[in-house]
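Folds abound. A case:
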Amino acid sequence: MAATDTAEPSRRDFLYIATAAVGAVGAAATVWPLISQMNPDASVLALALAEVDLAPIAEGQIVTVKWRGKPVFIAHRTKKEIEEARAVPLAQLIDPQSDEARVKKGHEQWLVVVGICTHLGCVPLGHQGSYGGWFCPCHGSEYDTSGRVRRSPAPYNLEVPPYEFASDTLVRIG
């Protein structure tokens, strides 16, 4: 009688499959914590969104809040500051950008910018300099009331972070 191949699985086949399954589960159990630890910490996630109540901020006042570990300036601009910012010809600007492009329509009195000088990362001082906006004491950069660089060495305007108005008195940054 000749030996015939059978299609039935043998005990050895079962052991191979069981060993592979246990190995796969073990590998997944080992890799999961390694991947999971790469997620941001809860304290960082808490900083990903900042909500600021604008009601106590007086006209002409600048407040600083922290968002993603960076200072963010929120300026409640006066009508005079808005008019001066809008009257500047774009050709006079180092980094040409209109005031209207830097604020939200209907909320032109509120300017929200990241408070880090675009030259070397210093924190500028508010209501300083020749343009009434911000002045970086480290290297002399000056920004106007729209956060646009007016005097070098800074190459760019103060960054406008992503933000939205949840209501007339509440802004969400991030």
The first strand starts at residue 50 and ends at 53.
